[in-house]
Design goal:
It catalyses: orotidine 5'-phosphate + H(+) = UMP + CO2. By secondary structure, this protein is an alpha/beta fold. It is built from twelve helices and eight strands. It has an eight-stranded parallel beta barrel, surrounded by six helices. α2 crosses α12. It binds the ligand O=c1ccn([C@@H]2O[C@H](COP(=O)(O)O)[C@@H](O)[C@H]2O)c(=O)[nH]1.
Length: about 290
Amino acid sequence: MTNMDKLYEAVAARGPVCVGLDTDFSYLPEGFAKAELTAGENIVRFNQAIVDATKSVAGCFKVQIAYYESLGLDGLNAYKKTLDYVKATGVPVIADIKRGDIAKTAEMYAKAHFEGDFEADFITLAPYMGLDSIKPYMPFVEEKGKGVFVLVRTSNPGAKDFEYEKLADGRHVYDMVGDKLNAMGKSCMGEHGYSSLGLVIGGTHIEEAAEIRARYKDSFFLIPGYGAQGGTAEDIAQYLSAGNGGVVNSSRGILLAYKKQPGVEFAQAAYNECVNMKEAIKNACDRL
Ligand SMILES: O=c1ccn([C@@H]2O[C@H](COP(=O)(O)O)[C@@H](O)[C@H]2O)c(=O)[nH]1
C-alpha cells in the first residue's frame, strides 16, 4: 500500500482537513513560552499540543519547513522533532519543502527528505525546471511508496503571472504542467485509484474547479488557501471527489483559531476550528 493509499484511507476515516504546522514563534499565546527554553523548543511544545488536540479530526499534517529554517539549527531541530511527533501518531505527514533543481541536486533533496533525520511521507515540489527535476524523487515513490505533491495551479494572486498564460493550443500553462505530471504519475498508481504523484491546486480560484477535477480524476490534490487566504468550503468542495481525492490545508486559520475564540485554550480552539472546517466541507460536498 502506498502512502497515497494511506492518505486516502485517512481522509475516508477522519476527513480532508490538513493541519498546517506553519508555526511562527509569534503565534504562541501570551505566557505559553518558557524563558528557559529556546524558540524552537517552545514551538515544539506548541506543535505537540496542536497535534494531540487535532489528530482525531485531521486527514494529515503539513509542516512548512520555512518557519523552522528561519530559526537556524534550533529551528531545524524543532522541524525534526515536529515531524517525529506527527509520525508517531500514525497520521500522514507532508513536508512542505517546495524543492525544484537539476537532477543531481534533486537526488540529494530526495535523500534528505525521504530518508534520514527529516524523513516524511510526502514532500512538495516545484516543477518549473522540468520533468528531469522531478524524476530523481520517483525511485522513492515507485519503490518505497512515498508521495509527492507538485505545484500546478497555486493559491497566491501571482498564480496569474505565469500559470494562467495561454499556449498556442488554448491550454493554460498550468494545464500543460498538470497534463505532463498526470501522465508521469501513471507509473505509480495506488489501490484506491490515485497516483502517488499528487498535484497542488490552490483553493482560492474556483472558476476552473470542475474542469480541473474532471481532467485529473486519478490525481490526489493538496489544496491550500482555505481560511486565511479566503478559500471557502463551497470553493474547495469542487476540488474533491465525493469528499475524498484531496486534502485541504489550513495553517494560520487553525494555529491562530484561539484569537477568534476568546477564553478558549489554543489547542481546544484549534480542534474546534478543525471540526468546523471538516463539517463545512462535508456539507458543501453534500450540496454539490
Ligand atoms: O499554492 C500554494 C502552495 C502552498 N501553500 C502553502 O500552504 C500553506 C497555507 O497557509 P495558510 O496560513 O493556511 O494560508 C503555507 O504553508 C503555504 O506555503 C500555499 O499557500 N499555496
